[in-house]
């Protein structure tokens, strides 16, 4: 059993570290969200897809980022869960 942290970026996607996903099939990934020892909230989702940064390099720990798509999507109306705030994309010419 291997445990890593992650950040919810939408109802279907979690951002995590690539070193947590290398060599792991999506069918092996289970995501626990909205957990609280006090209230016991919990949403458990299976991964339907895992995307590891194609240029991840473990030898120098570069591009250590990955995405996990969960299915079904998280129930975002649960008060124990929220996505992280990300800046709006900007175009740079």
Tell me about this structure:
The chain is mainly beta. It has strands spanning 7-8, 13-16, 30-33, 43-52, 66-71. Helices cover 0% and strands 28% of the residues. The chain has a 5-stranded antiparallel sheet with strand order 1-2-5-4-3, with no helix packed on it. A hairpin with a 4-residue loop joins strand 1 (7-8) and strand 2 (13-16). The protein is globular, with a radius of gyration of 14 Å.
List low-confidence stretches.
none
Shape: globular
* Percent strand: 25-35%
Encode the helix/strand succession as letters.
Answer: EEEEE
Number of DSSP helices? 0
Mean pLDDT across all residues, rounded? 88
Question: In percent, how helical is the residue content?
Answer: under 10%
- What about the largest sheet? 5 strands, antiparallel
Strand order within the widest beta sheet: 1-2-5-4-3
């Amino acid at each position: 059993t291997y445990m890593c942290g992650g950040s919810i970026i939408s109802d279907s996607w979690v951002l995590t570290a690539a070193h947590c996903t290398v060599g792991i099939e999506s069918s092996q990934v289970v995501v626990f969200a909205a957990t609280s020892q006090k209230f016991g909230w919990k949403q458990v989702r299976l991964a339907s897809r895992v995307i590891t940064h194609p240029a991840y390099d473990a030898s120098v720990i570069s591009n250590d980022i990955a995405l996990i798509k969960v299915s079904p999507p998280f129930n975002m109306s649960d008060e124990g869960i929220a996505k992280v705030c990300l800046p709006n994309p900007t175009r740079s010419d």
